[in-house]
Amino acid sequence: MAPAQPKTKIRVAELLSALSHALDITEGQPVGHCVRACWTGINVGQKLGLTQAQLSDLYYTILLKDLGCSSNAARICAHYLADDLTFKREFKKVDGSLPQVLNFVITQSGVKASMADRFRSIVSTLRHGGEITRELLETRCQRGAEIARQMHFNDNVQQGILNLDEHWDGRGQPDKLKGPEIPLYSQIALLGQVVDVYYMNDGRAEAINAVQSRSGSWFDPKVADAFLALADDQAYWKTLARDDLSKVIYEFEPGQGARIADEDYLDDIAQAFAQVVDSKSPFTAGHSERVTLFADLIAEQMGYSAEKRRWLRRAALLHDIGKLGVSNSVLDKPGRLDEDEFKEIKKHPVFSMEILANIKAFGDIAPVAGGHHERLDGKGYPKGLRGDQIDMDTRIVTVADIFDALTADRPYRAAMPVEKALGIMREMVDDAIDRNCFTALCAAIAKFDQLPTIENHAGELKAAV
């Protein structure tokens, strides 16, 4: 497989509007949340008289507002004993009033836990809820701003993401900024988020009411009024309801000219979203980069060209992007998964393939991401492919993924020594994994005296991608 990298021009706006769907699922939002929030935000920005340069920064702030969303998922599950996807979705409907906060804590904490554990979780939240919420939002926003910086967005975009959850009246999080201390892009991004949450759940009237009721508390009255001026704009609402809004959004990109992603930038985007994926669980920290390293070493041993290795590195970096749609209550479970939980885990390669297949720049790596849990004997998932139905690129990523899974800490066991991991994999040859790929992995490892030396080589790979 591994076709030569296309030389067609890829617009950054098109790439990120499509990738924002991955952020939607980890926030528990209907697909298209970020692009709908962006459409609202750009219309509000226009009403406020922002320049094209300002609208461009606002545009990317809103599309990428949830870059750090995966970084607090494990903490939410651990503290609230909750499904992080459901928790995040419902939390966005809380207006901050005491009755709503109490109801949310009681209904969302420890739904599937024992009565004693649930009670302890609720009491802890009521005692320390403010501090916990601040830490969760601080982690999310700081991580999001950091990844935006790595994606080469300017300080305006970074600050817009960093201060997303601050409120006009000074009661937001994490720094309780007040009034004009809050960047305008943050204010508009938050409004766009609120509008979409209520619009998708309860319709136009409730979206309008949500903004009206928060004017002067969550939102600068001028920003709220700019949105309310759209209340009777049928063109705005009609476009908001379009199924192909992603296409509208990237074609609507503000600014002097469309930003074009070159090959190096595509590598940077793949690296950035790999970090979003790996931030979701403490047990997957660095997983995508390590799989990429091992896949690259295997490909090198097998004589892949430099161009094909670059392509394969992107596939390895993004192979697990679908895990953003799986709850940490499953990903981080310390014991054996039950049947329903295993069904949830088996969805992640499907999610990966669906996300990547809809992105022009990454569509050709979708089959690798969707097939990395298939087995040569047909006993893998999600499609039960066998033998020649599994291409060599996918086989390489599969071997790299299994090797890292065995040699890294997991919720249910500690990391294995390299020799033990290779011994287990040797028994899988020809049934689950490809013989040539496994031989290439062993040959690559044999070049190094010990695994830490291999890990030191990651710096070279990072420079390459």
UniProtKB/TrEMBL annotation:
<dbReference type="InterPro" id="IPR052020">
    <property type="entry name" value="Cyclic_di-GMP/3'3'-cGAMP_PDE"/>
</dbReference>
<dbReference type="InterPro" id="IPR037522">
    <property type="entry name" value="HD_GYP_dom"/>
</dbReference>
<protein>
    <submittedName>
        <fullName>Cyclic di-GMP phosphodiesterase response regulator RpfG</fullName>
    </submittedName>
</protein>
<keyword id="KW-0378">Hydrolase</keyword>
<dbReference type="InterPro" id="IPR003607">
    <property type="entry name" value="HD/PDEase_dom"/>
</dbReference>
<dbReference type="GO" id="GO:0009214">
    <property type="term" value="P:cyclic nucleotide catabolic process"/>
</dbReference>
<dbReference type="GO" id="GO:0004112">
    <property type="term" value="F:cyclic-nucleotide phosphodiesterase activity"/>
</dbReference>
<dbReference type="Pfam" id="PF13487">
    <property type="entry name" value="HD_5"/>
</dbReference>
<feature type="domain" description="HD-GYP">
    <location>
        <begin position="262"/>
        <end position="457"/>
    </location>
</feature>
